[in-house]
Amino acid sequence: MRLTTKGRYAVTAMLDLALHSTQGPISLADISGRQDISLSYLEQLFAKLRKRELVKSVRGPGGGYRLTREGDNISVAEVVDAVNESVDATLCRGDNDCQHGHECLTHHLWSDLSHQIHDFLSKISLGDLVRRNEVRTVAKRQSDDVHRMSQGQKEGLIKIEAAL
User: Fold this and answer.
1) Which domain covers residue 49, as residue numbers?
2) Residue 132: which of 27, 34, 19 has the closest Cα?
3) Would the CA dihedral through 22, 15, 53, 30 be positive or negative?
4) 106 and 86: one domain?
5) Which of 18, 74, 80, 158 is the most exposed place for a label (fewest CB within 10 A)?
6) Each residue of 116-145: pLDDT tens digit?
7) Torsion of CA 84, 89, 93, 98, to 10 degrees
């Protein structure tokens, strides 16, 4: 049983947005740089998140995305559900046809586990995650890394210009 990349990336991107929400609209390029998720993949995810009204876009200079609600009011399960992912531990994806067109012996066990996981994720908000010290520590390191990389690129350009 696993949460797919789509669900993981959606949660990661939404958490990044929640962590940086005080800075105004956040561009997908900024999220992409901090989280190492391709920009085109983020665009697909955010189209789904926007459709489910979890984010709104802000156009123009300084534009980007904002959460439509406070992080405390957006559960991790909502984010996973918004990108059409399910946390399903059954082999049959809930279709009750795991064994030759019929449910298998352990179908209800795995189905119950899937419901427990969804309930667990429903009880965790983006705000809960933002308040976790380990999340804030990782977010600071990511921001510092991106800042150092952009400084290195600027220094490289200055050296190239000086050589010309």
Assistant:
1) 5-92+102-131
2) 19
3) positive
4) yes
5) 158
6) 999 999 999 999 999 999 999 999 999 888
7) 170
